[in-house]
């Protein structure tokens, strides 16, 4: 009896080893070792918000965006709802981190005079650089007359004070020729801009950029930041996204191009700050067959899904018969890695991707540092739910936050004029010492330190605040977040953390 049990145990052990070996080999053969972090959690079909009736997503169409509208560090969702006869509202679904709060009154509304169906595109971004995301609508007046209306966030409502818009033209700009509109900080000045991919016909395409001044848009002109006579923008319509794909601090553009017969490529247009460099027709990712770009139209989004500080691309792919998967193309900085056709999430049945087309957005809805996905699902008969797919990626630690934590360890150190070490710091000495700890060598003089980094208006922890002249400031401090800064103030005092004062310029050292 004992020998039979031993033989049985040996057989079971051998089979377990064999199965494990096959799993290991298959992972190698398919080039992907599946990690728990490479996935989305879809907690419940009930979603983060739902209603059994009364919210017709068909009245939203594709006028859905995401952004941090209340400035709390978590992304929210906004929709431009058409009530008919010129009545419109902007509804905002503010994130609590695990659900959305919704007020039917909206953050902006009008009983008449604003026809939402005339909006060619809606985008969200921090256009005035105050740290809260705003909404811009490209409004088609017909006959080539177009305006860009901006709705500025107050944190709890939108202020719309100028129907002339931040940019307008009485003729010559046909909004219906826009195949994609995007928001992002394309020139890297800390304020979000707008880019449009414009179809001139016969495969002539240009990317126009409207750079923000904080209160208006400057139009780069019809030549655009990029142009081509051999690029059919209709082959990327519904599949154009914006994000910082190379991690240089400026927003880029990516487009999934349909070559027909399931051949697809992702083209990238990287920003130089004043133009776009086109990666070429081979793109950052390509396949000669097997990936039908039409199966993701209206469901392609960009965000930092793996938390490495570079934007990636996610596509909700419709396999038919309610089978769906979310594929992720992670950025390496110069290409996209697509290693798992099973996707970061998928079901063989029960999720009809067509019911969210045009209403899929990305943002960090739970505030954990990695981008998530939200999809507004149409259940029919005005029943709707917002489903959220949260990323399980563990974000790469933020250097700015790490620097702030390091600077806090010196709170209480006495101010010493010319001091550059923990026995005593002056203002620029504290900055120099803290940044050196993270491999960044700055000079010991505020007038020289201000020459480094990128000018920003949307402050992030680790940014430097300069006081006095913008060219030769007399003082510098480290922004620590939530309206506070860390500084070595003056003789007789110690390093401390204090509310920020009026400063002349802010610079970002870490991109």
In summary, what is this structure?
Belongs to the peptidase C40 family. It comes from Clostridium beijerinckii. The protein is mainly beta.
Task: Produce the secondary structure layout.
Layout: H1 2-29, E1 40-42, E2 49-51, E3 64-67, E4 76-84, E5 87-95, E6 100-102, E7 108-110, E8 119-125, E9 134-142, E10 145-153, E11 158-159, E12 167-169, E13 178-184, E14 193-201, E15 204-212, E16 217-219, E17 226-228, E18 240-243, E19 252-260, E20 263-271, E21 276-278, E22 285-287, E23 300-303, E24 312-320, E25 323-331, E26 336-337, E27 345-347, E28 360-363, E29 372-380, E30 383-391, H2 399-408, E31 420-421, E32 424-425, H3 427-437, H4 446-449, E33 454-455, E34 464-468, E35 473-481, E36 484-487, E37 496-499, E38 505-508
Antiparallel strand pairs: 1-30, 2-30, 3-4, 4-5, 5-6, 5-7, 8-9, 9-10, 10-11, 10-12, 13-14, 14-15, 15-16, 15-17, 18-19, 19-20, 20-21, 20-22, 23-24, 24-25, 25-26, 25-27, 28-29, 29-30, 31-32, 33-38, 34-35, 34-38, 35-36, 36-37
Please explain how this structure is put together.
The protein is mostly beta strands and 511 residues long. It folds into two domains: 40-391, Methylamine Dehydrogenase, Chain H (7 Propeller), CATH 2.130.10.130; 399-508, endopeptidase fold (from Nostoc punctiforme) (Alpha-Beta Complex). Helices cover 10% and strands 40% of the residues. Strands 33-38-34-35-36-37 form a six-stranded antiparallel sheet, covered by helices on one side. Strands 1, 2, 28, 29 and 30 form a five-stranded antiparallel sheet that branches. Strands 3, 4, 5, 6 and 7 form a five-stranded antiparallel sheet that branches. A hairpin with an 8-residue loop joins strand 8 (119-125) and strand 9. The chain starts with a helix and ends with a strand. Mean pLDDT is 92; it is low at 1-34.
């Amino acid at each position: 009896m004992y020998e039979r049990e031993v033989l049985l145990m040996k057989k079971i052990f051998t089979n377990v080893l064999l199965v494990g070996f096959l799993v290991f080999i298959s992972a190698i053969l398919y080039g992907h070792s599946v990690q728990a972090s490479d996935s989305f959690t879809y907690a419940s079909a009930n979603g983060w918000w739902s209603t059994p009736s009364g919210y017709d997503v068909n009245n939203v169409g594709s006028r859905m965006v995401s952004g941090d509208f209340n400035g709390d560090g978590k992304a929210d969702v906004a929709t431009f709802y058409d009530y008919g006869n010129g009545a419109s509202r902007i509804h905002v679904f503010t994130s609590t981190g695990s659900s959305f709060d919704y007020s039917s009154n909206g953050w902006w509304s009008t009983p008449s005079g604003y026809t939402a169906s005339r909006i060619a595109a809606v985008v969200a971004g921090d256009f005035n650089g105050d740290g809260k995301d705003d909404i811009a609508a490209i409004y088609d007046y017909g006959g080539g007359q177009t305006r860009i209306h901006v709705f500025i966030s107050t944190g709890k409502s939108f202020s719309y004070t100028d129907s002339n818009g931040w940019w307008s033209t009485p003729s010559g700009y046909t909004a219906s020729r826009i195949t994609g509109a995007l928001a992002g900080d394309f020139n890297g000045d800390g304020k979000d801009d707008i880019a449009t991919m414009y179809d001139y016909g016969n495969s002539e395409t240009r990317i126009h950029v409207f750079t923000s001044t904080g209160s208006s848009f400057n139009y780069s002109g019809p030549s655009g930041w990029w142009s081509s006579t051999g690029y059919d923008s209709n082959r990327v319509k519904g599949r154009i996204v914006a994000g910082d794909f190379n991690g240089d601090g400026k927003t880029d553009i990516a487009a999934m191009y349909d070559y027909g017969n399931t051949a697809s490529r992702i083209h990238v247009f990287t920003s130089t700050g004043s133009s776009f460099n086109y990666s070429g027709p081979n793109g950052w990712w390509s396949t000669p067959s097997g990936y039908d770009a039409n199966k993701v139209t209206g469901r392609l989004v960009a965000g930092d899904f793996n938390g490495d500080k570079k934007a990636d691309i996610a596509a909700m792919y419709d396999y038919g018969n309610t089978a769906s998967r979310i594929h992720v193309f992670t950025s390496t900085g110069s290409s996209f890695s697509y290693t798992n056709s099973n996707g970061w999430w998928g079901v063989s049945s029960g999720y009809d991707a067509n019911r969210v087309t045009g209403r899929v957005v990305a943002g960090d809805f739970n505030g954990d540092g990695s981008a998530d996905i939200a999809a507004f699902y149409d259940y029919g008969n005005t029943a709707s739910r917002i489903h959220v797919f949260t990323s399980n990626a563990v974000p790469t630690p933020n250097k700015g936050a790490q620097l702030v934590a390091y600077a806090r360890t010196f709170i209480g150190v006495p101010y010493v004029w010319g001091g550059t070490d923990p026995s005593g710091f002056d203002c620029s000495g504290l900055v120099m010492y803290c940044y050196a700890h993270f491999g960044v060598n700055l000079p010991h003089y505020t007038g020289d330190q201000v020459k480094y980094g990128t000018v920003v208006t949307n402050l992030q922890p680790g940014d430097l605040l300069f006081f006095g002249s913008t060219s030769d400031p007399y003082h510098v401090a480290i922004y620590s977040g939530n309206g506070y800064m860390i500084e070595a103030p003056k003789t007789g005092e110690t390093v401390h953390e204090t509310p920020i004062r009026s400063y002349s310029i802010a610079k970002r050292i870490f991109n």
